[in-house]
TrEMBL record:
Domain Carboxyltransferase residues, every copy: 27-303
Source organism of this protein record: Streptomyces demainii
Name under which the protein is recorded: Biotin-dependent carboxylase-like uncharacterized protein
Alphabetized InterPro entries for the sequence: CT_A_B, Cyclophilin-like_dom_sf, PxpC
Xref: Pfam families: CT_A_B
UniProt-listed PANTHER family: 5-OXOPROLINASE SUBUNIT C
Amino acid sequence: MTDSAFVVVRPGALTTVQDLGRVGHAHLGVPRSGALDQPAHRLANRLVGNAEHAATLETTLTGCAVRLRRPATVAVTGAPCPVTVDGRPAPWGAAVRVPAGALLEAGAATHGVRSYVAFDGGVAAEAVLGSRATDVLSGLGPAPLADGAVLRLGPPGGPAPGVDGVPHRGVARELVLPVLLGPRDDWFTAAGLRTLATGDFRVSAASNRIGLRTEGPSLERAKDGELASEGMGLGALQVPPDGQPVLFLADHPTTGGYPVVGVVPEPHLAAAAQAVPGTPVRFTPLGRVSWGPSARREPGEAAARRRG
């Protein structure tokens, strides 16, 4: 067994291997997956000298703990949390040198939901369709971390850059999400669209990597019945029969039959990834997108990026 690895001592509530995801496979029914807070993932990799696509660990709320089998430069970003090496405090948001045999622990998030742990060389899990990301919906990629699991590390790259401090946007007390209306906003009444813009929504505890679910008023429908299944893009704001919007995140299904009232541009999804249950949510419609044939097949993927 290789010494260039770490052993999972405490997996936490849900810790997965993530990178930038597997792009270009939606036509096969495979979503992008990858880190939900991509800026935090990229920052962690930069701090330890990795390329941005190197795989990190994404923790959920309670952090994780691993024991290194080789010396490693490590950085923890995303949701702020206490970081310790063999029980001694270490900085969050900075490169830390961890000796072989030491226990690295990223504790419970003090703000936000998801922290990112990067190791120099990256987590060398087996790639599936060009990505090491764990997709909790399809089951592609490595399994979520479990007690005693051993994960390999890649060879260290260049030296980590020296920095005095790193940017951190903080965690908003209110999640404000711009929405580009369409392609199925005509399935909702004018009152329903006003509810979207003015309603008192909150993040539901049922949220996960697939989607951020909301609790609040129902959006009134103008049409009964459901659609034939059609493509669903990252950031699609789908409205199920209960009328409460669901924002699709990285592990979303690639098709669905509930109407998509609008799309949240991708740059705003990282904030959604860090919103704890109970966080107030405010949707701010920006107008309606002109949806072409390709955008209608995958609502929002292309158009949201153009307008984001």
